[in-house]
Design a protein that fits this description.
The chain is an alpha+beta fold. It has a single domain, classed as Lipocalin, CATH 2.40.128. The chain is 29% helix and 41% strand. The chain is built from 4 helices and 7 strands, in the order αβαββββββαα. Strands 1, 2, 3, 4, 5, 6 and 7 form a 7-stranded antiparallel sheet that branches. The longest helix has 20 residues. The chain is globular and about 35 Å long. The termini are far apart. 29% of the residues are buried.
């Protein structure tokens, strides 16, 4: 009986830790960019609470939900992606910090792929976003006050 109780508590603790580290489970205020969503068939959302200044621009979490499952270049299938993007407000290229790919819509379901580390935004984001979406997101991120400056 004690062993079962201990294992149950250990399992609950592990689940809580995993949920606490998931980008989509953190306290977030997702705002859908309806114009981008309507033009692309994707649901494009930004976490307004994650907007932060950086040395050359702004960083924000972006969540994308595809209308149907897609296959990642590593072979796993996914339906949505939560990524952190740093936008350069001087018009230069930004960086793509990380991405978590989920089996279901809006950052839910199983994590199918996890990418860590910075890479150039245009190379990776072209696979996720339609052509003009990155420009629109950059303008939106760079024109909004960050939570720290409100």
């Amino acid at each position: 009986m004690r062993r079962t109780s201990f294992l149950r508590r250990l399992g609950c603790l592990a689940a809580a830790l995993l949920l606490g580290t998931s980008p989509s489970a953190r306290g977030a205020t997702w705002f859908e960019l309806a114009a981008l969503s309507a033009n692309s068939g994707l649901v494009v959302e930004v976490d307004t609470d994650s907007l932060r200044p950086t040395t050359s621009g702004r960083q924000v979490a972006v969540r994308l939900t595809h209308p149907a499952p897609r296959q990642h270049r590593w072979g796993a299938f996914f339906r949505s992606v939560v990524t952190t993007v740093e936008f350069r407000c001087d018009g230069g290229l930004g960086t793509y910090r990380d991405a978590v790919y989920y089996s279901d819509a809006r950052g839910t379901g199983l994590v199918t792929v996890r990418e860590e580390g910075a890479s150039q935004v245009p190379d990776r984001m072209r696979e996720l976003l339609p052509a003009r979406s990155l420009e629109t997101l950059t303008r939106a991120a760079c024109s909004q006050p960050t939570p720290a400056s409100r």
